[in-house]
Design goal:
This is MmcQ/YjbR family DNA-binding protein. The chain is of the alpha+beta class and 118 residues long. The protein has a single domain, classed as Aspartate Aminotransferase, domain 1 (Alpha-Beta Complex), CATH 3.90.1150. The protein contains 4 helices and 6 strands. The longest helix is centred in the C-terminal third of the chain and has 15 residues.
Length: 118
Amino acid sequence: MTNSLDESFERIWTIAESLHLPELVRSTTHGTPSLKVKTSFIGRMKDWETFAIHCPLEEKPLLMESVPNIYFETDHYKGWPYILMHLEAVSDAELGHRIKLAWHAKAPAKVKKTLAAG
C-alpha cells in the first residue's frame, strides 16, 4: 500500500510507459502528478488513492454501475468526461486499458498515425 501522490503515480507511470504510446508524458495538473498526450490532459491524481481519467460521458454510468468498487464520481466530476478510480481496487491490466482509451480519445490525429505506422 502506498500513501503518497508520488508513490501512487509511479505505478500509473510504469503502466503507462509499458504501453509505448507516442507523446505520452508525465506532467503536473492542479498541483498533482498527471498524464498528458503532448499537451492534452488525460488523467491526474486526485489524492494518493484516487486517479481521475478521461472517460466519455456516456460510458461513466455503465462503469460506475458495473464496477462500483473501482469507478465512481464526486459532484465536482458530474457532467465532465472524467471518471474517478480507486487505485487499490483496479488491476494493472484495467488501469492500462483505461490509459490506452484515454490516450486514443485525446491524442491528435498526427500522433495516432505515428502509433498506427508503428
